[in-house]
Design a protein that fits this description.
six-stranded parallel β-sheet; elongated; Rossmann fold; mainly alpha; 2 domains
């Protein structure tokens, strides 16, 4: 018991200590988990001697991750990705398989070893790619969706690749293997149909019954049963467990219980994913690397370079941008966890030797370790891609009574009163996507960076009666104010303030009007909250007005004291607000039956 408890504490300690450190250094959580696993593994502190047993359990984290991804993909959306799955996925796998096999032969390996090594390396690590996409928020992005589609196609290849390994190990047998492989295919298809049928007709009634029972623990157990059951069925059918979980998620994506299931699975998914990366770090056999380091090092460098080049070429061939193609190439340049299963089957079948299997495994694990580093270096060295200005009109020779800079949520609302009155408004923004979106709603927005003096001249600031700065970037707003106060003194200057300190600085700069972006809405929100809990409407209005007056008094005092955004403005520096004087009338009981007056102001 002490030994088990020590190992559990070691796993938790490695994750809690190393991962935040790596994230603080900007190296990402995946690399932190891998490093933590290496430290506590057989070739570090030696707290674990058989990391493979942990790896088998931790693979459930990948399974649950794919289930959550499936919940976000409705069948119609998955159908829309069919070309990316079977077109892009098939093309990338074919090109990479041929190139990697050739690279293995060029390194002096036999055909069997080169072929098995290529099969193991061509299938990308689902766990690493999905985790890094999730951390970057790119899963829902088109480039992320394309990578997800490729990973799904790779999961479908597990049975065919195992069949090829079986063929290589039993090539001298006549008809038996053919019948066996046909039976395997039928079993695989049957397992898929079984999961689909269960998800379509049985799961929703089951969850409705559990919801009526009102037992939270039953819903958690049912969620785990769905994920693990679907994974088990497809695993028994010879397919990927992750594919089974993903399929179950897709079938439940339109269910009313989708968000509940996601909430129940998420804690288990996060812990097991971390455990998976820790166990991968443990499996890095340093003795094999030390004994055969020229072969391992050359194999890692050559295989990663060849696969990255192929992925990049396929992406560019299918018209992905250069930055998206490079990002995909670096992120998918490693081998995957399925290689461990493939190498084990090949060793058991006598296709490759145990030494070759150990070398290939070290190459795969090392490529998984290096991938987060390669992604980090590439993203830091890569210049930001210039936004496409297709269909966007650049600000040039414009005139208008009011120049509005920034058309985000704040700017859109601010423009409505001006446009309703028929004021001649010129609007500029530096986000092409937002400009295209605004055009679909009938707004004419020009592309322009308001922090540049030439752009302000081109946008009509020289003839505008007022300049409204509605950007959500404090430094950009300050730069625009500086230019406007120096070059366009005839125009009234209205500025969106980020916070109290920013508002103080703007007043000292001499702007004609400033407003804190959340102050008035928060006051109205608090006023509504008072009314909802039974405070009479007149009292709520009076309290809000009193807060507004006191805030203005504090603001003027801080202005006189010279406080501001750079002056250490903290709540502790503010004068303590005097307790509010209770309203003269007797307040109604909270939760009383009498509703507020019909003419009470609303938010």
């Amino acid at each position: 018991m002490d030994s088990i408890l020590l190992r559990v504490v070691a796993l938790l300690g490695a994750a809690i200590i190393v991962v935040p450190l790596f994230r603080r250094l900007g190296l990402g959580s995946v690399l932190g988990y891998l490093a933590g696993g290496l430290v506590i593994g057989p070739f570090g502190l030696g707290l674990f001697t058989h990391p493979e047993s942990i790896l088998h359990v931790a693979e459930l984290g990948v399974v649950m991750f794919l289930f959550v991804i499936g919940l976000e993909m409705r069948p119609s959306h998955l159908w829309a990705l069919r070309r990316a799955i079977f077109g892009l996925g098939a093309l990338q796998i074919s090109v990479c398989s041929l190139a990697l096999t050739g690279a293995g032969l060029a390194l002096g390996e036999s055909l069997d070893v080169a072929l098995i090594g290529a099969f193991g390396f061509v299938l990308t690590s689902t766990a690493i790619v999905m985790q890094m996409l999730a951390e970057r928020g790119d899963i829902a992005h088109p480039r992320g969706q394309q990578m997800v589609a490729i990973l799904l196609f790779e999961d479908l290849l597990i049975v065919p690749l195992l069949a090829v390994v079986s063929l290589l190990s039993t090539a001298d047998v006549d008809t038996g293997p053919e019948r066996s492989r046909l039976l395997d295919v039928l079993i695989a298809l049957g397992s898929i149909l079984g999961v689909v049928a269960t998800g379509r007709w049985l799961l929703n009634p089951l969850f409705r019954l559990l919801a009526l029972a009102g037992a939270r623990e039953l819903m958690t157990a049912a969620a785990l049963l769905v994920v693990l059951g679907a994974a088990l069925v497809l695993d028994l059918g010879g397919l990927s467990m992750a594919m089974g979980a993903f399929l179950a998620g897709v079938l439940l994506s339109e269910s009313a219980f989708r968000h509940q299931l996601e909430a129940e699975i998420e804690p288990f998914r996060g812990i097991l994913m971390g455990l998976f990366f820790l166990s991968v770090g443990m499996t890095l056999d340093l003795s094999v690397i030390a004994d055969r380091w020229p072969q391992v090092l050359s194999g890692v460098l050559v295989m990663m370079a060849v696969k990255a080049a192929c992925v990049y070429a396929v992406a560019r061939l299918l018209r992905s941008s250069a930055s998206d193609a490079l990002d995909r190439a670096v992120l998918m340049a490693q081998g995957g966890e399925f290689a461990f299963v493939l190498f084990g089957a090949a060793t058991a079948g006598g296709v490759i030797s145990a030494a070759d299997s150990a070398t290939l495994t070290a190459i795969i694990v090392l490529s998984m370790v290096l991938t987060p580093l390669c992604v980090l270096v590439t993203r830091r060295r890569q210049k930001p891609e210039e936004p496409s200005l297709e269909g966007v009109e650049i600000a040039q020779g414009l005139t208008g009574s009011v120049l509005v800079i920034g058309f985000g949520r704040f700017g859109q609302i601010a423009c409505q009163a001006l446009l309703a009155r028929g004021v001649d408004v010129t609007i500029i923004d530096n986000d092409p996507e937002m400009i295209r979106s605004a055009e679909t709603f009938g707004f004419k927005v020009y592309f322009g960076d308001g922090t540049r003096l030439d752009v302000l001249h081109a946008s009509g600031a020289g003839s505008a009666r007022a300049i409204a700065v509605c950007v959500n970037d404090q430094s950009a707003a300050d730069r625009i104010v500086e230019l406007a106060r120096a070059q366009f003194t005839h125009a009234k200057l209205l500025v969106r303030a980020y916070d109290r300190g920013h508002a103080l600085d703007l007043v000292r700069t001499g702007v004609d009007y400033q407003v804190r972006e959340t102050f008035e809405s928060a006051l109205r929100f608090g006023e509504a909250a008072l009314r909802e809990v039974g405070v009479p409407s007149d009292d709520a209005v009076e309290i809000t007005a009193d807060i507004r007056r006191r805030d203005q008094a504090r603001f003027e005092l801080q202005l006189a004291q010279g406080l501001g955004a750079g002056g250490g403005l903290l709540h502790s520096n503010m004068p303590k607000p005097v307790p509010l004087t209770p309203p003269r009338r007797e307040p109604k009981r909270i939760g009383g039956d009498e509703p507020p007056p019909k003419d009470a102001p609303t938010t």
